[in-house]
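tool_call predict_complex ligand=magnesium ion
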Amino acid sequence: MTDRRPARIIALVNQKGGPGKTTLAMHLAGELGRRGFRVMVADADPQGTATRWAAAAPEDLPFPAAVGGLAATDGRLHRELRKFLEVFDYIVVDCPPSADSPTSQSALLVADLALVPVIPSPPDLWAGVAIGQVIASVMAINDGLRARLVVNQRKAHTRLAASLAPLLPKYGIPVLDTQVGDREAFRHAAAGGVTVADLPRASKAAEEIASLTDDVLAILKGAT
Ligand SMILES: Nc1ncnc2c1ncn2[C@@H]1O[C@H](COP(=O)(O)OP(=O)(O)OP(=O)(O)O)[C@@H](O)[C@H]1O
Ligand SMILES: [Mg+2]
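tool_result ok
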Protein backbone atom coordinates (compact mmCIF):
# COMPACT_ATOMS: atom_id res chain seq x y z
CA MET A 1 0.00 0.00 0.00
CA THR A 2 1.42 3.33 -0.99
CA ASP A 3 -0.01 5.37 1.89
CA ARG A 4 1.82 3.37 4.55
CA ARG A 5 5.19 4.54 5.61
CA PRO A 6 8.17 2.21 5.59
CA ALA A 7 8.97 0.20 8.70
CA ARG A 8 10.78 1.87 11.55
CA ILE A 9 13.87 -0.10 12.57
CA ILE A 10 14.86 -0.52 16.21
CA ALA A 11 18.20 -2.24 16.87
CA LEU A 12 19.08 -3.84 20.20
CA VAL A 13 22.85 -3.58 20.47
CA ASN A 14 25.68 -3.62 22.96
CA GLN A 15 29.23 -4.66 23.45
CA LYS A 16 28.83 -7.19 26.20
CA GLY A 17 26.85 -10.45 26.24
CA GLY A 18 23.82 -11.00 28.38
CA PRO A 19 22.29 -7.66 29.45
CA GLY A 20 18.97 -8.45 27.80
CA LYS A 21 19.03 -7.63 24.08
CA THR A 22 16.96 -10.66 23.13
CA THR A 23 14.62 -10.36 26.12
CA LEU A 24 13.84 -6.72 25.35
CA ALA A 25 13.70 -7.29 21.57
CA MET A 26 11.12 -10.06 21.96
CA HIS A 27 9.08 -8.09 24.48
CA LEU A 28 9.12 -4.84 22.50
CA ALA A 29 8.21 -6.71 19.31
CA GLY A 30 5.56 -8.76 21.13
CA GLU A 31 3.97 -5.67 22.68
CA LEU A 32 3.91 -3.83 19.33
CA GLY A 33 2.35 -6.94 17.77
CA ARG A 34 -0.28 -7.09 20.51
CA ARG A 35 -1.13 -3.46 19.74
CA GLY A 36 -1.96 -4.45 16.17
CA PHE A 37 1.21 -3.39 14.35
CA ARG A 38 2.90 -5.62 11.80
CA VAL A 39 6.20 -6.51 13.44
CA MET A 40 9.24 -8.56 12.58
CA VAL A 41 12.12 -9.54 14.81
CA ALA A 42 15.24 -9.78 12.67
CA ASP A 43 17.33 -12.39 14.47
CA ALA A 44 20.82 -11.20 13.56
CA ASP A 45 22.55 -13.26 16.26
CA PRO A 46 24.10 -16.59 15.18
CA GLN A 47 23.10 -17.95 18.61
CA GLY A 48 19.52 -17.90 17.24
CA THR A 49 17.95 -17.15 20.62
CA ALA A 50 15.04 -15.11 19.25
CA THR A 51 14.27 -17.80 16.69
CA ARG A 52 14.23 -20.50 19.37
CA TRP A 53 12.08 -18.33 21.62
CA ALA A 54 9.37 -17.92 18.97
CA ALA A 55 9.62 -21.61 18.03
CA ALA A 56 8.82 -22.50 21.66
CA ALA A 57 5.47 -20.67 21.47
CA PRO A 58 2.44 -22.79 22.32
CA GLU A 59 0.41 -23.88 19.28
CA ASP A 60 -2.64 -21.93 20.42
CA LEU A 61 -0.63 -18.80 21.23
CA PRO A 62 1.63 -17.98 18.27
CA PHE A 63 4.25 -15.35 19.02
CA PRO A 64 2.72 -11.95 18.15
CA ALA A 65 5.59 -10.95 15.83
CA ALA A 66 7.25 -12.72 12.92
CA VAL A 67 10.86 -13.80 13.52
CA GLY A 68 13.28 -14.03 10.61
CA GLY A 69 16.78 -15.53 10.79
CA LEU A 70 19.15 -12.97 9.27
CA ALA A 71 22.41 -13.78 11.08
CA ALA A 72 24.07 -15.14 7.96
CA THR A 73 23.79 -11.80 6.18
CA ASP A 74 26.63 -10.25 8.26
CA GLY A 75 27.58 -6.84 6.89
CA ARG A 76 24.83 -7.05 4.26
CA LEU A 77 22.12 -7.01 6.92
CA HIS A 78 21.08 -3.43 6.07
CA ARG A 79 20.37 -4.47 2.49
CA GLU A 80 18.34 -7.49 3.63
CA LEU A 81 16.34 -5.34 6.04
CA ARG A 82 15.39 -2.94 3.26
CA LYS A 83 13.49 -5.80 1.59
CA PHE A 84 11.07 -5.87 4.53
CA LEU A 85 10.44 -2.14 4.86
CA GLU A 86 7.11 -2.21 3.04
CA VAL A 87 5.89 -5.40 4.72
CA PHE A 88 6.13 -4.38 8.38
CA ASP A 89 5.44 -1.35 10.55
CA TYR A 90 8.34 -2.10 12.90
CA ILE A 91 11.45 -4.24 12.54
CA VAL A 92 13.25 -5.04 15.79
CA VAL A 93 16.81 -6.24 15.20
CA ASP A 94 18.35 -8.54 17.83
CA CYS A 95 22.10 -8.11 17.35
CA PRO A 96 24.95 -10.40 18.44
CA PRO A 97 26.95 -9.44 21.55
CA SER A 98 29.56 -7.35 19.77
CA ALA A 99 28.90 -3.76 18.80
CA ASP A 100 31.74 -3.51 16.31
CA SER A 101 30.74 -6.66 14.41
CA PRO A 102 29.74 -6.10 10.77
CA THR A 103 26.21 -7.25 11.69
CA SER A 104 25.68 -4.69 14.45
CA GLN A 105 27.20 -1.89 12.39
CA SER A 106 25.06 -2.87 9.44
CA ALA A 107 21.90 -2.79 11.60
CA LEU A 108 22.83 0.63 12.98
CA LEU A 109 23.31 1.99 9.45
CA VAL A 110 19.57 1.64 8.73
CA ALA A 111 18.14 1.88 12.26
CA ASP A 112 15.95 4.72 13.45
CA LEU A 113 16.62 3.89 17.10
CA ALA A 114 19.40 1.95 18.86
CA LEU A 115 18.45 0.56 22.27
CA VAL A 116 21.42 -0.37 24.44
CA PRO A 117 20.43 -2.54 27.42
CA VAL A 118 22.72 -2.17 30.41
CA ILE A 119 22.79 -4.01 33.73
CA PRO A 120 23.26 -1.42 36.48
CA SER A 121 26.45 -2.81 37.98
CA PRO A 122 29.91 -1.25 37.60
CA PRO A 123 31.64 -4.16 35.76
CA ASP A 124 28.81 -4.35 33.25
CA LEU A 125 28.83 -0.61 32.73
CA TRP A 126 32.62 -0.44 32.30
CA ALA A 127 32.55 -3.27 29.78
CA GLY A 128 29.92 -1.65 27.62
CA VAL A 129 31.13 1.91 27.24
CA ALA A 130 32.69 1.39 23.78
CA ILE A 131 29.23 1.14 22.22
CA GLY A 132 28.91 4.91 22.65
CA GLN A 133 31.75 5.50 20.20
CA VAL A 134 30.41 2.92 17.76
CA ILE A 135 26.99 4.58 17.72
CA ALA A 136 28.49 8.07 17.44
CA SER A 137 30.55 7.01 14.42
CA VAL A 138 27.52 5.45 12.70
CA MET A 139 25.50 8.62 13.44
CA ALA A 140 27.98 10.50 11.22
CA ILE A 141 26.58 8.44 8.32
CA ASN A 142 23.02 7.68 9.47
CA ASP A 143 21.99 11.07 10.80
CA GLY A 144 18.45 9.85 11.60
CA LEU A 145 19.78 7.41 14.19
CA ARG A 146 18.79 8.03 17.80
CA ALA A 147 20.00 6.01 20.77
CA ARG A 148 18.95 5.28 24.34
CA LEU A 149 20.43 3.25 27.17
CA VAL A 150 17.87 0.93 28.77
CA VAL A 151 18.54 0.01 32.38
CA ASN A 152 17.57 -3.69 32.60
CA GLN A 153 17.67 -6.36 35.31
CA ARG A 154 17.50 -3.73 38.01
CA LYS A 155 17.20 -5.35 41.45
CA ALA A 156 13.95 -4.79 43.32
CA HIS A 157 13.82 -2.04 45.93
CA THR A 158 17.12 -0.50 44.94
CA ARG A 159 17.55 2.91 43.44
CA LEU A 160 20.21 3.27 40.81
CA ALA A 161 23.15 3.51 43.22
CA ALA A 162 24.80 6.90 43.42
CA SER A 163 28.11 5.29 42.47
CA LEU A 164 26.61 4.14 39.15
CA ALA A 165 25.13 7.45 38.11
CA PRO A 166 28.50 8.94 36.98
CA LEU A 167 29.12 5.88 34.76
CA LEU A 168 26.05 6.31 32.57
CA PRO A 169 27.10 9.65 31.00
CA LYS A 170 30.34 8.00 29.83
CA TYR A 171 28.24 6.30 27.14
CA GLY A 172 27.23 9.66 25.71
CA ILE A 173 23.73 8.21 25.19
CA PRO A 174 20.60 9.42 27.01
CA VAL A 175 18.86 6.97 29.37
CA LEU A 176 15.34 5.78 28.50
CA ASP A 177 12.77 6.85 31.12
CA THR A 178 11.48 3.32 31.69
CA GLN A 179 13.76 0.93 33.57
CA VAL A 180 13.14 -2.81 33.63
CA GLY A 181 13.42 -4.81 36.82
CA ASP A 182 15.15 -8.12 37.45
CA ARG A 183 12.03 -10.30 37.38
CA GLU A 184 11.65 -14.06 37.21
CA ALA A 185 8.76 -13.56 34.75
CA PHE A 186 11.18 -12.55 32.00
CA ARG A 187 13.01 -15.87 32.29
CA HIS A 188 9.72 -17.81 32.34
CA ALA A 189 8.55 -15.96 29.23
CA ALA A 190 11.61 -17.07 27.26
CA ALA A 191 11.23 -20.66 28.40
CA GLY A 192 7.56 -20.75 27.38
CA GLY A 193 7.94 -18.95 24.06
CA VAL A 194 5.63 -16.15 25.21
CA THR A 195 5.88 -12.63 26.64
CA VAL A 196 5.23 -11.54 30.23
CA ALA A 197 1.84 -10.19 29.09
CA ASP A 198 0.75 -13.83 28.65
CA LEU A 199 1.84 -14.94 32.11
CA PRO A 200 -0.16 -14.90 35.36
CA ARG A 201 1.18 -12.78 38.23
CA ALA A 202 3.50 -10.85 35.91
CA SER A 203 1.64 -7.55 35.84
CA LYS A 204 4.62 -5.47 37.06
CA ALA A 205 6.80 -6.86 34.27
CA ALA A 206 4.01 -6.34 31.73
CA GLU A 207 3.58 -2.72 32.90
CA GLU A 208 7.29 -2.08 32.43
CA ILE A 209 7.16 -3.43 28.88
CA ALA A 210 4.06 -1.37 28.02
CA SER A 211 5.80 1.73 29.38
CA LEU A 212 9.04 0.95 27.51
CA THR A 213 7.02 0.54 24.31
CA ASP A 214 5.28 3.89 24.90
CA ASP A 215 8.71 5.53 25.35
CA VAL A 216 9.99 3.98 22.12
CA LEU A 217 6.93 5.09 20.13
CA ALA A 218 7.27 8.62 21.52
CA ILE A 219 10.93 8.78 20.49
CA LEU A 220 10.14 7.51 17.00
CA LYS A 221 7.40 10.12 16.66
CA GLY A 222 9.96 12.74 17.58
CA ALA A 223 8.09 13.70 20.76
CA THR A 224 11.16 13.38 23.01
N1 LIG B 1 14.68 -8.00 33.20
C1 LIG B 1 15.12 -9.26 33.39
N2 LIG B 1 14.82 -9.93 34.52
C2 LIG B 1 15.27 -11.19 34.74
N3 LIG B 1 16.03 -11.87 33.87
C3 LIG B 1 16.37 -11.24 32.73
C4 LIG B 1 15.94 -9.93 32.41
N4 LIG B 1 16.44 -9.59 31.19
C5 LIG B 1 17.16 -10.65 30.78
N5 LIG B 1 17.12 -11.64 31.69
C6 LIG B 1 17.80 -12.95 31.63
O1 LIG B 1 19.20 -12.70 31.47
C7 LIG B 1 19.77 -13.64 30.56
C8 LIG B 1 20.37 -12.89 29.37
O2 LIG B 1 19.30 -12.21 28.69
P1 LIG B 1 19.27 -12.12 27.11
O3 LIG B 1 19.46 -13.46 26.49
O4 LIG B 1 18.05 -11.37 26.74
O5 LIG B 1 20.56 -11.21 26.89
P2 LIG B 1 21.32 -10.90 25.53
O6 LIG B 1 21.88 -9.53 25.67
O7 LIG B 1 20.44 -11.14 24.37
O8 LIG B 1 22.48 -11.99 25.56
P3 LIG B 1 23.48 -12.37 24.35
O9 LIG B 1 24.49 -11.25 24.34
O10 LIG B 1 24.06 -13.68 24.75
O11 LIG B 1 22.66 -12.41 23.10
C9 LIG B 1 18.65 -14.58 30.18
O12 LIG B 1 18.69 -15.68 31.02
C10 LIG B 1 17.38 -13.77 30.44
O13 LIG B 1 16.26 -14.58 30.73
MG1 LIG C 1 20.69 -12.35 22.72
